[in-house]
Every structure is written in structure tokens, then in C-alpha cells.
């Protein structure tokens, strides 16, 4: 993607970044000149986006440390002689976005291949069922559906109650 961007999370704040950009962010614990990989919340570009992408990584280099602009705080109460003046300067780090790597092709192709197989055997709405609903409805399922649901639970859910109900139904 030519105009790829990412939304990353640093210090409890979110930033929209592109490769080559420099940002001032709250001080990060990484040393100057070193690189690190922040959490990637979203990837996007060319009208397509992906939330919480797996395998995506943003490489960030810490360029330097700076102090922010001084903020002056003044307190005053009339007729009492109460005056206070204090200041604050934020500790900031300047970072540079070096690389936004995406590994979408392999993950999406694998997901597309697995998706058509599961719905053919699994009962309708199985993914949204609770353990109690599975235990109640498993009696009306065919042996093929019970086997598919059991296989799905072992691979994905691993819910003990659902596994027990399906194994009991399979033995009947």
C-alpha cells in the first residue's frame, strides 16, 4: 500500500502515524537511538482498514528527549495576600516511525480457507451459544454436528462444560 498508516498506542494515548513521520510523545523508557515496537491498534490505507491486525508491527526509533513548553500556573485570592506561582514542563521524547510492516496476505488467506468448512457441519448460531444452551440443544443435533462442535471446542473454545456435554452426547 502506497499510503499506509497505522494507529498506535503509546503512554495511554493514540497516534495516527505514517512511515518517516516524527512525533513528540510523552517520555518513553527506551534509550535514545534504540528502536521499539508499540501496540498496533489499526492499519489502514487506500480505503481499506483492519482493526487489531495480527502480525502487523510498527518500528519506532527514539530520536531524542526534550522538555515541553513551560506552563505557568498562578493562584491568587484577593484581600488575603495569598499568591502562588508554579510551573510545569512536560518530559517528552521525539520518535521517528521507521517501518510499518503488514503481513495481511498470509493471515487472510488462511482465514478464508477455514471459514467455509466450519459452518457446513456446525449447528446454526453455535459460535454465539453459551455452555448451557449447548448442553440443552445438543440432544437434537445429528452425530455429524456433535462431532463438528466437539472438534471446534477442542480447537478454539476449550470450554469444559461444553466439552463435557458434547462428549456425553457423542457417547449416546
Descriptive overview:
The chain is built from 5 helices and 8 strands, in the order ββββββββααααα. It is of the alpha+beta class and 172 residues long. α3 (131-137) packs parallel to α5 and α4 (143-157) packs antiparallel against α5. It starts with a strand and ends with a helix.
Number of strands: 8
Structural class: alpha+beta
| Share in β-strands | 35-45%
What coarse outline follows from CA principal-axis ratios?
elongated
- By DSSP (H or I, 4+ residues per run), the number of helices equals 5
Largest sheet: 4 strands, antiparallel
Helix and strand pattern = EEEEEEEEHHHHH
Mean pLDDT: 83
The helix content is: 25-40%
Q: Low-confidence stretches at least 5 residues in length (pLDDT < 50)?
A: 105-119
Give the secondary structure arrangement, pairings included.
Elements: E1 5-10, E2 13-17, E3 22-26, E4 35-36, E5 39-45, E6 48-51, E7 57-77, E8 82-101, H1 104-114, H2 117-121, H3 131-137, H4 143-157, H5 160-171
Antiparallel strand pairs: 1-2, 1-5, 3-8, 4-7, 5-6, 7-8
Keyword list:
29% helix, 4-stranded antiparallel sheet, alpha+beta, single chain, 172 residues, 8 strands
Write a brief structural summary:
The chain has helices at 104-114, 117-121, 131-137, 143-157, 160-171; strands at residues 5-10, 13-17, 22-26, 35-36, 39-45, 48-51, 57-77, 82-101. The chain is of the alpha+beta class and 172 residues long.
Amino acid at each position: 500500500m502506497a499510503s499506509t498508516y497505522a494507529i498506535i498506542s503509546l503512554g495511554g494515548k493514540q497516534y495516527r502515524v505514517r512511515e518517516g513521520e516524527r512525533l513528540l510523545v510523552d517520555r518513553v523508557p527506551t534509550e535514545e537511538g534504540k528502536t521499539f515496537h508499540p501496540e498496533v491498534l489499526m492499519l489502514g490505507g487506500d480505503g481499506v482498514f483492519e482493526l487489531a491486525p495480527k502480525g502487523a508491527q510498527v518500528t519506532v526509533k527514539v530520536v531524542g528527549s526534550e522538555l515541553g513548553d513551560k506552563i505557568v500556573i498562578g493562584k491568587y485570592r484577593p484581600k488575603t495576600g495569598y499568591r502562588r506561582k508554579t510551573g510545569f514542563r512536560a518530559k517528552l521524547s521525539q520518535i521517528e516511525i521507521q517501518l510499518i510492516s503488514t503481513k495481511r496476505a498470509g493471515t487472510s488467506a488462511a482465514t478464508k480457507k477455514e471459514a467455509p468448512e466450519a459452518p457446513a457441519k456446525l449447528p446454526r448460531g453455535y459460535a454465539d451459544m453459551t455452555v448451557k444452551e449447548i448442553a440443552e440443544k445438543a440432544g437434537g443435533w445429528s452425530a455429524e454436528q456433535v462431532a463438528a462442535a466437539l472438534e471446534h471446542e477442542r480447537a478454539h473454545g476449550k470450554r469444559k462444560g461444553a466439552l463435557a456435554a458434547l462428549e456425553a452426547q457423542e457417547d449416546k
